Amino acid sequence: MTKRSFNYYGYTKESYKECSGLIRSTNRKHITILTTWFFFINLLYIVFSFLNLFGVSQERVPFYFSFAMLSLAFDIWLIVFPKSVEKHNYLAVFASISMFFIYGILSSVAQPYMPATMMLIVLTLTSLSYIGRMYIMILIAIVGISFFLTTSYLFKTFSIAYHDTYNVMVVFTLAVTLHYTFQRTRVAQFILYQKDLQIQKELEIKSSFDALTSLLNRGRFFSITAEILRQKTDEYMALCILDLDEFKQINDNLGHQMGDKVIQTVGKTLIQALGLGIDDKERMEISKWELNNFRSLAGRLGGDEFILFLRGKKSQTEVRELLQSVLDSLNAVRFDGLEGIHASFGVTELAANDRDIDNAYKRADEALYESKRSGKNQIHFSSESVPGDA
Description:
alpha/beta, 14 helices, two-stranded antiparallel sheet, 390 residues, six-stranded mixed sheet
C-alpha cells in the first residue's frame, strides 16, 4: 500500500499527480482572481492618494501605480496565455505570492508607526488560494515572513516590530492550518472528480465497443459514420457488410466457445487488415475523435455479422483488393478442427451526395444477399446507383 504524505495533503503522490491538471487550472483561476482584485485595490489607493483620503498621501501614487501596472501585465499573461500559465504553474504561483508579499512588506515599511495589516491579509489569502506541495508552501511563507520581520525590526520601533512578530506568528499558524485543511478538501474533490470521470470514460467504452472483438458496436458505428457522411467531402469511401457463412454449423458442431473464437479471429483480422489498432487512450477519447482525419472503421453488428466503413482508397479496384486480402486471410485460418473461415461481403460505394447511412446500409445489405445467392465466400458490389446520381 502506497504511503500517504503530509506533503500531498494526506494523499499519495500518485493520487496527487493524477489531479495535477485540475490543480494547475485551479491555481490559474485563483491567481487571475487575486491579481485582478490587487489591480483594482491599487487603483482605489491611487484615487485615495490624489484626494488625500484616509491618510493616503499623494507621495504614494508612484508606488500604487507601479503595482497596478505590474498586476495588469500579470493579468494579461493569465488571460491571453492560459496554457502557458498552466504549463509554468509553479512559476506563476511563486511570482504571484512574491508580488503580494513584496507589496505587503513595502506597505509595512511605508507606515513604520503602525503594525502591519496588509501582510497579514496577503498571508491568509495566499494560503487559501494556491495549491502546491505542503512543504514548499510552508517554506515560501517562512521566507516571506523572514523578510517581513527583518524589515519591520529595521524600520520600526521595537514595540511595533514586536507587535508585528506576534501578529504574523498567529496568522502564520492559522494560515498553515487553513492551507492544509482547505487544500486537502479541494484535492479530495479533485480525486473524486477524476474517479467519476474515469467511470464515465469506462462506461463510454463499454457503450461504444464490442467486448468480444474490440470493434465498434452497432450504435456507435452508425453514429460516427452518419456524422462523417454529413460532412462535405470528395473523398472516395465505401461501406461493406461481412457475414460469416455456415456459422451456425460451427456452433453446432464445434461448440459455442469455438464460435466465440471465430468471432474474435475475424475481429483481429479486420483490425490488422484495416490498420485499426486503437489504444486505450483513443478509446477513452472516442467522443473527441477528429472525423475528418480518421481512418477506416469496423464494427460488429451482432452475431456473425460485421460492417466496414472504408476510407483511404481511390477506387473500387483498391477496395476489392483489400477485401480480397481479408477474405484470403479468413479462408487460411486453421485451428481446432476448423478448416478456414468463410464469409460473404456486400459492398456499396459512397458518392459525394450520399448523406444517408441507412440508404447506404440497405444497398450494401442487398449486395450481401447477392453474394450469398451467388455461392457465398465472395465479394459482391452493389450495382444500385446512389440516390441523386445522374
